[in-house]
């Protein structure tokens, strides 16, 4: 009822959101991932749909239900997330990158399961390759959507997050102290743009998502 009665400041707006971790395969049965739960991104997708936006959610491997009215695309690796996002990005009003994208992947994926050598030979060494930066690539499009980045930092929150915002060439970054927030149902956020900072005090992730979406609506109108 609450959602039904809510104002629709994002009616007619298209939003693309990434969420969750990525999974980078080593062989058919193993891979590298991280502890992102996807909860913040899914809450933002829900809040955006409630606000009337047409929402596409590109999700890494998570165990979460798709919010009502949201179009979901499931991916595994960072490269797959990049390939899903880039063709859609130019047609969006806003892009919100909440995904915890792996910075590196194993340089090669083995076709068959790696086996322990007979007689206990040495453990394998993984060579790593750098993944594409999805957010930076979207921000570099000729006519980019309004780009919102997320930054989980373990220290010097505002300073590191603002440096990241400028490095990626995006107007707004949302900072939080990680990794303590991973998997939790609440969070506290710091919004940083060229004008300054605004703190969204600790609350449940859906309430924070609704506040963030309100803030975004102002910027898109
Ligand atoms: N991001 C992305 N693609 C990547 C890496 C990050 O789209 N390959 C996005 C994240 O979704 C997030 C923002 O960039 O919105 C910042 O991610 P973060 O990992 O904090 O920044 P990095 O630039 O990867 O820097 P570092 O991990 O070294 O702090
Ligand atoms: Ca990173």
Automatic annotation (TrEMBL):
CTP binds at residues 103, 113, 132-135, 150, 164, 168. GO terms for molecular function: FMN binding; metal ion binding; phosphopantothenate--cysteine ligase activity; phosphopantothenoylcysteine decarboxylase activity. GO terms for cellular component: phosphopantothenoylcysteine decarboxylase complex. It catalyses: N-[(R)-4-phosphopantothenoyl]-L-cysteine + H(+) = (R)-4'-phosphopantetheine + CO2; (R)-4'-phosphopantothenate + L-cysteine + CTP = N-[(R)-4-phosphopantothenoyl]-L-cysteine + CMP + diphosphate + H(+). Its EC number is 4.1.1.36, 6.3.2.5. Binds 1 FMN per subunit. Residues 15-221 are annotated as: Phosphopantothenate--cysteine ligase. Keywords: Decarboxylase, Flavoprotein, FMN, Ligase, Lyase, Magnesium, Metal-binding, Multifunctional enzyme. GO terms for biological process: coenzyme A biosynthetic process; pantothenate catabolic process. It comes from the Bacteria. Residues 10-218 form the DNA/pantothenate metabolism flavoprotein C-terminal domain. Catalyzes two sequential steps in the biosynthesis of coenzyme A. In the first step cysteine is conjugated to 4'-phosphopantothenate to form 4-phosphopantothenoylcysteine. In the second step the latter compound is decarboxylated to form 4'-phosphopantotheine. Catalyzes two steps in the biosynthesis of coenzyme A. In the first step cysteine is conjugated to 4'-phosphopantothenate to form 4-phosphopantothenoylcysteine, in the latter compound is decarboxylated to form 4'-phosphopantotheine. This is Coenzyme A biosynthesis bifunctional protein CoaBC. The lineage of its organism: Bacteria, Pseudomonadati, Pseudomonadota, Betaproteobacteria, Burkholderiales.
